Amino acid sequence: MLSPYRVLDLTDERGLLCGKILADLGADVLQVEPPTGNSARRIAPFYRDQPHADHGLFWWAYAANKRGITLDAARADGKALLERLIASAHFLIESGRPGEMAAMGLGYERLAEINPALIVVSITPFGQTGPYASYLASDLVGMGFGGFMYVTGDPDRAPLRVGFPHFYLHGAAAAASGAMIAHTQRVATGLGQHVDVSCQEAVARSLANSLAGYAIEGSVIVRQGAYRQMGGGAYMRITWPCRDGFVNFQFSGGASSGQSVNNFVRWMADEGMADEYLQSLDFKALGYGTVTKEMMDRIVPPVSRFLGERTKQQLFEAAIERRILLFPVATLGDILHDPQLEARGFFHQAPWPELDANPTLMGAFARMSATPLKAGGKPPRLGQHNIDVYVKELGLARADLCRLASAGVL
Amino acid sequence: MNAAATMQPFENLKILDFCWVAAGPMTTGYFAEYGATVVRVESRLRPDVLRSSPPFGGSGKGLNRSGYYANYNANKYALGLNLGTPKAIEIIKRMVAWADLVTENFTPGTMERLGLGYDELCKVKPDIILFSTSMLGRGGPNSKLPGFGAVLSSLSGLTAITGWPDRSPTNPYGAYTDFITPRFAVPTILAALDYRRRTGIGQHIDMSQLEVSLHFVAPLLLDRANNAREGARTGNRHDAAAPHGAFPCRGDDRWITITCMTDAHWAALRAVLGDPQWMRAERFATLLGRKREEDELEALLADSTRAWEAQALMRALQAADVPAGLVHSNKGVIEDPQLEQRGHFVYYDKPEIGRHPVQRSEFRLSRAPAARNWPTPFIGEHTREVCRDMLGMSEAEIEPLIAAGVLEVPDAAAASS
After folding, report:
1. Which CATH number fits domain B4-216+343-416: 3.90.1150.10, 3.40.50.720, 3.40.50.10540, 3.30.70.120?
2. Any CB–CB contact under 8 A between B262 and chain A?
């Protein structure tokens, strides 16, 4: 869909996903790497545990479908080549610290001078301006500042992040939205602009109702482990152990959850395991966010006994039949064999001559009826497209290409 | 700057929006924020469940008081319409002819049952773009499974990998995946619109929120698939850095994140903490040493940080170039000076709900200030306006439909307050 557009992707692991989304949507994304390679190539895990610049699975995941060139923008020749690419590009994405591009003589004003239609996307922890703009943020630091950690985890332990680094992924994915919004405006005006992305804001937008909870009710939401605090004094339980793992079963009142819980209690009663108290409650009538901690204390023991005797699969199958909103807590292995994903052909196996294998790769994030997305794409090898871009496209003499490679510019 | 340079990106874009709950309305919220005309279809007979989700502003009962709902629906028009009536479907088809884009996140099959499947929409407008997002996507054995975001955290593996190694997994807070999907949905929709502009070809977008969410755990899935390694819960630790965690500070439930990604960070942390005896130990001098004895390292570091006030330690560490930060509660986020400076929260005052915040998108566009601003509408607030201005219906047409319950307008209490 985006095949007429060229994206220069200068990001490292903090911003790769933005260009990857645009690449999947069909844009020609050139990952511009330093001659020593993008730092994201060094992130574990590695294919077959071989630490190699082309074997990083983080790199596979977030550089797929891009083309790759090398260039040292700190060198005059490298910068000159980059400026030539900028002149005809449609997007430039970068994830340097605020001021880093300007220090290289490539601040937004300079970029707009070279190409007034260029959309420049800057992905930083806190945005280009403000009191934290210059703060250093690892992924964990960002998740804390975004408000995610405080509400996640067990009440008797430290606040907790989600189990895979998401701070920059949230920002980088949002950056793709910002880039395309700016593009839509450019179609009408012919003008580019600067898209200033804050990963902190992206995480803060991922907190469901908790922020409104403080702003409106003054309630500070605390982490509750398997439970969730629904405002002041209301709780629901979400995760439960079962015989061979865990299940997700939102135990709360309300129109849909309440009906599901009523159906579950009926199942327990059919098996002779629902006590009088459980059977006395009508969760649908109780309403969402109305079950108190005291009620949960009476509910949990019999429900835990019931779940503990059954496997994820047994519970899930019965849940579908009895219209109960109960789902397995899937392991990664479960996901690889998920019948729904299998039916939709999500995972891909692609021949990869350099590896002499058919590794499993990720599927597309959307199904388009007219323009199917590229799924299961591969990431570029270091400098894989230098000749295509520098020699064939920009007309650099082959001898000069070798000269610049030798000088450490490419 | 001339007018063209500051026009809204979506000034001429018209969206008929059936989305509800969080992922869908947040998606169309980006469009509303940047100037699209978004008409949200809703009925009092089957209101968005977020309308009855806490927190609630004001007092008493009512569907117009949820702060959760209000966060995603500002700048939209509210069309009250009972889709159970044939006349309503007729009105919807006129709206389809008006729209550039139709959005929905019902369980797959619902639009078809309403007579509003993609093929039907194409009969009205051959180049229409229909955006459909559902938990598990269209087709496949579990396509129609009901559920919501907290469930998808579990199905996507995010719950299994979140938590402490010695404890049960923990659900990431909230309907977490609902907030991942919009960031993929917006560029996908805009790419489809751009493609149609160039080629005249519309299409149906089918977005599985499970498949989108898997891209947020992709390297671990590739590891499982290609290296047969199952993901493990590691708390806040990092495989190639130590210390890397949240440590207690002075006060009640106060914490600081400290992450030493390099030897330089470790050296600077030592200096800021006054280089106590324990930090000078040989076993902590290397990354491998610190990883080997990480339990003890963390316990000792926690003893040191406990004496500090979190803000002071964070400032000292940032001044020494150590990535460290506050662990904000929801209160901390609302009061955060950085977010304040960015104008992240826009506060509105509206009858029934009262004063409440709406979050802006996570980017600032240098040429597109969000110009149009009104708070989330009451159910049916713009019914008359939409029918009159967008469909050209006369009052004589509109009022009987209101009386018949096909069109819905706010009840008298809301309208008069």
Report:
1. 3.40.50.10540
2. no
Q: What tens digit of pLDDT does each residue of A207-224 get?
A: 999 999 999 999 999 998
Task: Enter the pTM of the model.
Answer: 0.96
For residue B302, give Cα distances in angstroms to A149, B207, B262, B297, B341. 17, 44, 20, 9, 32
* ipTM exceeding cut-off 0.85 for this assembly: yes
Q: Mean pLDDT, to the nearest integer, of A247-255?
A: 85
Q: Evaluate whether the domain defined by B244-334 bears CATH number 1.10.10.200.
A: no
Task: Measure CB to CB from residue B52 to each of A25, A140, A288 and give the nearest one.
Answer: A288
Mutating which of B188, B362, B365, B367 best tests the A interface, going by the most A Cβ atoms within 10 A?
B362
Whether the ω angle into residue A302 lies within 30 degrees of 0, i.e. cis, is no
Domains (range + CATH), chain A: 6-205+380-406 (3.40.50.10540), 227-329 (3.30.1540.10)
pLDDT in tens, A61-86: 999 999 999 999 999 999 999 999 99
Q: Which parts of A190-248 fold into alpha helices (H)?
A: 199-204, 210-217
Residue B57 scores a pLDDT above 90:
yes
CA closest to B333 among chain A residues: A147
SS3 call for B231? coil
Q: Which residues of B touch A199 (CB under 8 A)?
A: 362
| Partner A, chain B 46-65, Cβ-Cβ below 8 Å | 49, 52-57
Q: Which two tokens stand for residue A208?
A: 């469901």
Q: How many residue pairs from chains A and B have C-beta atoms closer than 8 A?
A: 551
* Dist CA A292 CA A289 (whole Å): 8
